[in-house]
Amino acid sequence: MKDFRKYSFLFLLPLLGFFEVNYAVAQTEAVEKDSTTTVSHPEKVVINNIFIVGNEKTRKNIILREIDLKTGVSYDWDELISMIQADQKKIYNLQLFNSVEITPLITDNEQIELLVSVTERWYIIPNIIFNLADRNIAEWWTNQNRDFSRVNYGARLVHNNVGGRNEKLKVGAQFGFVKAFEVLYSIPYLDKNQNHGISGQFTYFTQKTIPVKSAFNKQVFYTNEKEEVLRKNSSAYFRYSYRGSYYNFHFVTFGYNNTTINPDVFVQNPDYLLNESNKLNYFVLGYTFRHDKRNNIQYATEGELLNISVTKYGIFASDDMDDTEISINANKYIKVSDKFNFVSGLSLNSFIQKRQPFTLVRGIGYNPNFIRGYELNVVEGQQILVHKNSFRFKFIDVGYDIGKYVPLEEFSYLPLKMYLGFNFDHGFVNDRNNLPDNARLTNKYLFGYGAGLDIVTLYDMVFRFEYSLNNQGEQAFFVNFRAPF
Q: What keywords sit in the KW lines (predicted)?
C-alpha cells in the first residue's frame, strides 16, 4: 500500500504544469534568524572547509559557482552573515532546490567550517499542456465568449537538471487551437570556470484561426470557410551566454524564422506581411544584457532586475524584412519591512521602422507589457512606455508538513503566502501610422488602478485576483496565474 501511494502521486505531477510556471519553493531563512541570536561568536573568522550535503543529483561545482565565500579568507562576523544570506539566495535561484541553508560551524578560535545543506526538488516533470490560446483569461471570458474551442492541450516532458549540471531539456507536443511542437536544450556552463554556456530551440506551429488585425483596440480573428491552416511557422534559435559575475549575464542569439500565410488572410488585411509574398523569411541576431539581483526570481520582494536587448530582424540582403527592436525593462523591489514591500517596473520598447508585419506587432496588452484595467484591450504601436507599481502587504505566511499524505520529500512541505496589493500602472503607446480604427487608446496617456490578492504556494505558483479601473471609466475583475513583475 505504501508503494502504491508513493508512485500514484506521480500522476499528480502534470498538474503542476497546468499554470506553466517555473518550479521553486520558499527559501530557508535560518541563517538570517541565527544572526540575531545572543550566542557568542568571534569578531573575525576564517573558513577552513565548505561542505555540501543533500545534493544527490546536482554536482558540487554547480553549487560552489554561486558561493562568494572562500576558504582561507578572513571575514568579519557581520560580513560573513551578510554574505551567507546573499549566497543562499543565489543557490536557491538556481531553481534546483526546495530549500537552502548555509550554517557556519565554529570549530576553534576564529576558525569555522561552512555547511551548505540543500533539499533537491523533483527534476523530471511530465507536464500536461492545458491553457487558453488567448492573451489572458479576461480576453477569453469576455471578448471570446468563453469559447472552449480556443483551448490548447498536449504534453511536455521537462528535465530541469540533466546530468546534475543544471542543464535543461524540454520536449513538447501541443494540439487544439494552436498545434505546436518544440524542443529546447540548454547547457549553462561549458568551461571549467563556468562562465560560458549555450542553448538551442526549435519550434513549429500551425493555426487555423489567427488574429489578422485589430479594430477598436480589440483583436480581430479570422477563419476561412474551409477551415484551412492559415499560418505555418517554424523557427530555430541558438544562444550563447556569458556570466562573468554573479548577477550579470550576457546573451547573444542567432536564429531563423519562416512564416507561411494562406492567401485568404490578405483579403482581410492586405498589409499582413508588408510584402508581395505569402512567405516571410528572415534571420535574427540579438544581444541581451541582464542584471538580476532578486531574492526570488518567481515572486520577488527585494532586489532589482534590469534587461536591455537589441534585436536585428533581417541580417542578409535576401531576408524579407529589415528592422531593429530595442527593449529595456527595469524593476526595483523594495522590502519596507517583513510585512510590506513596494515594487516598481519601467518598460520601454521601440522599433526603428514605421511599419512592421502583423506577426511582430507590439503594444500594451501583449506580454509582457500591460496596464492593469486594460486587460481586454490591445493598444498597438511602434513605441511603448509602461510603468507598473504595486504596494503589497503580506498578511499570511504559513507552511504545512504534508509528508504523511505525500510520501515524496520534494512535495512534503506546503507553503502559503498571501499578499494584499494596491496597484497603479500607467503608460503610452505611440502609433506612428495613426490608424483610425484604434485611435481611442493609441497616442494617449493611459492609466489603471485597483486592488488585488496574490497567493503564492507550492513551487511558487502564483494566483492573482485583481479588481481594476482605468481612465476610460471601465472596470472589471481579472484573474492571472503569474507575477506581474
A: Membrane, Signal, Transmembrane, Transmembrane beta strand
